[in-house]
Amino acid sequence: MLIGCTQLRELELVGAEFCSATPRYEPANRKQAVACAWAGRVGEVAVATLGCRPSLSTLTLAGWPGFQSGRGLSQLTQHCPHLTSLSLAGLGNTHTHTHALSYTHALLQALPHCQRLRDLRVEQAYFELSEAVCEGLWACVCLERLCVVARNGTFSAVAVTTLMRRCTRLVMLHLLTGATLNACRSLQHTLTHSFSSRPALSVVVYPLLHEELPQVVRQIPLTHLEQITLFKTRIAQQPPT
């Protein structure tokens, strides 16, 4: 397929059983879906192979338990310099903190090659938006929208604030993690007041499993909600009438 599609620009590879933690206007899913057996066969080599299509600008990878070390992600971004939108969700073993560390290391190796990236969505259990990750994102000089959905994950408030300062085009930041409500409110207050001069700024920092999350989601601008905050296919849908 990849050999025949020489001008491929948008690609989605989503495991059959993948279920996002952020369903629309409902409480977040507390259980992690079990990936189908076939999805386990898709691993590093398959992901790295996508690099043979340098024309790719939009890529979604979700629900692939065979994606363990993450090396393929770095190889992919090296050969796809035109990526402007990247969505990664439920890759590898989503039940352990150890894999999250491995996954983070792979992401840090991939980010320096994403200098044209405008939209980044990461949905990964135990993922931490740490100082190292935020520094890695500095390389994404065109970044405009960032969404992190991390069950049992957290963030460094100081690092996130610095990220906002360094990425001057960043106007949308949505963090749904395992952090406490107080920590989320504190960071959101800091960001909304420190960067209020940015046009159409949208900052949402909230606990992923909090019972009032659906009410918070309803207040998100529809464009951001549909395009990046909620996981949804952009290709397997009915064409507009």
List the SSEs and their pairings.
Elements: E1 10-14, H1 44-49, E2 58-64, H2 71-79, E3 85-91, H3 97-110, E4 119-123, E5 128-129, H4 131-137, E6 145-149, E7 154-155, H5 157-166, E8 172-177, H6 181-194, E9 202-207, H7 213-218, H8 222-229
Q: What does this entry look like structurally?
A:
The chain has 241 residues and is α/β, with parallel strands linked by helices. It has helices at residues 44-49, 71-79, 97-110, 131-137, 157-166, 181-194, 213-218, 222-229, and strands at residues 10-14, 58-64, 85-91, 119-123, 128-129, 145-149, 154-155, 172-177, 202-207. The protein starts with 9 loop residues before the first strand and ends in a 12-residue tail after the last helix. The mean pLDDT is 85.
Indicate the structural class: alpha/beta
Describe the strand arrangement of the main beta sheet, using strand numbers.
Answer: 1-2-3-4-6-8-9
Task: Tell me the strand percentage band.
Answer: 15-25%
Number of strands: 9
- Chain-averaged pLDDT: 85
Number of helices: 8
Helical content, roughly?
Answer: 25-40%
The rounded Rg comes to 17 Å
Ranges where pLDDT stays below 50 over 5 or more residues in a row are none
Q: What is the makeup of the main sheet?
A: 7 strands, parallel
Beginning-to-end CA distance, first to last residue: 29 Å
From the spread of the alpha carbons, the general shape counts as globular
Order of helices and strands: EHEHEHEEHEEHEHEHH
